[in-house]
Amino acid sequence: MSLLNTLNLTYPIIQAPMAGGATTPELIASVSSFGGLGSLGAGMTAPDVLDSQINTIKTLTDRPFMVNLMVLSEQESSTFDTTIPDWLSHYYQENNIECALPERPALSFADQIQVLYDNPVPVASFTFGIISAEQVQHLQGLGTRVIGTANHPLEAKAWSDIGADAVCVQGVEAGGHRGGWLAQSETDPLGLLTLITQTRACTDIPLIAAGGIMTGQDIKAVQTAGAELAQIGTAFLTTDKCGINDIYKQALLDASENKRSAETRLTRLFSGKQARGLLNDYLRDFARFESAHELPPYPQLNAMTKFLRGHATNNLDPEYQSLWAGQGVALVRQERTIELLERLVKTL
Q1: Nearest to 105 by CA among 89, 81, 129
Q2: Which residue, among 179, 176, 171, 332, has the nearest Cα to 264 in the 3D structure?
C-alpha cells in the first residue's frame, strides 16, 4: 500500500511541522482539509497546551494531521551544565537585556509523548533523536502512524529497524533545525536527492522528502528519485495561516523580492544545534564563535539566546531573530494558504 493511502491523503504534500508558533491549528486544518497532511510543530509546547491544540485541530478538521516532537533525554532537557558564553553575556549587558535562565532548558519529552498516548493523533513524527521500538508499538497500537526524521541513511535505517511507518529524509537544503542525531549527518551533510538515493539503497521503508521543495515540479522530482511524499516548510511561512511574526515574514518576502539577500546559512549560534536560516547581522557579528567547542549544546544555548531573540522581536528587528528558512526562500510568495496548495497540485 502506498504511503498516500496509508496516511489517507489526497495529495503527496505534508506541511512541515515547524516549532515555535508557526504551525497554527488553522494552518494545519487548512492543509489537512485540502487533502495534504497538516503538521503541528510541538517540540517546544507545554503538555497541557499541546493537549488543547490537538483538541482544537480535531474540531477544525476531520482529516488526518500530524504532531511532531523533539526527542531529548531527561538529562538533556533538565540540565544546565554550561554557563552563558561571555560574548552573549556581554551583549545582554550592553543592551540592558535581563537574562534569567529557566529551571530547565527544555520541556520533558516523556511528558509530551504521554499526551500522544492519552489523546491519540493520526500521525506522530519525531526529530532530533529516535524513540524505542516499544514506544513505536505503543503509538501504533493506538492507531497512530509513526514517522522518523533522518539526515543520513543510517538514521533512516535505524527508524526502519524499530518499525516506523515512514521516514522523512531531510536534505541539507532544508530550513530550520537539522533533524538527525548521528555524527555522520553533520560531518558531510547530504543534499536531498543524494540522501534519497543512498537511503533507498539501504532500506525499503517509505520515504518523505524535505529540503528546498517549493513547487509542484520539485515534488515530482523527489518522487522520481524515490520518495513518496514531499514535506514543505518555507513556502508555508509567508501564507496567511502561518503564525510567525510580521517582521520575520517580511524578511522572507524581502529575500524573494531582492530587498535583502536570500543567502541562508547553517548555524549553531542560536540554539547549539545546526539549523538553516537567512543570513542576518547576528550570524555575521558572532560568526567567529560558530565552532562547536565554543558553544553550549542544544537545548542549553537555545534557552540562553531566548532573551536575545525576544528583545529583537519586541523591537521589530529581524537582524537578531532566528529567521529560519530553506534554500528555496527566494521563491516564497505572500498568498493565502489555499492558494499555495492549489498552485502546488496544479502540475502534479
Answers
A1: 81
A2: 176
Three cell numbers, residue 71: 526527542
CA 139 remoteness from chain centre = 21
Distance between CA 228 and CA 223 in Å, rounded? 5
Nearest to 54 by CA among 25, 33, 30, 23: 25
Residue 292 has pLDDT above 70, yes or no: no
Alpha helices in 108-239 (DSSP H): 109-118, 133-141, 153-161, 184-187, 192-202, 216-225, 234-237
**Could you tell me which residues come within 8 angstroms of residue 217 by beta carbon, excluding any fewer than 6 positions away?**
347
**H or E stretch including 37?**
none
The pLDDT > 70 percentage for the chain reads 100
**Full-model pTM:** 0.97
* CA dihedral of 60, 242, 221, 148, whole degrees rounded to 10: -70
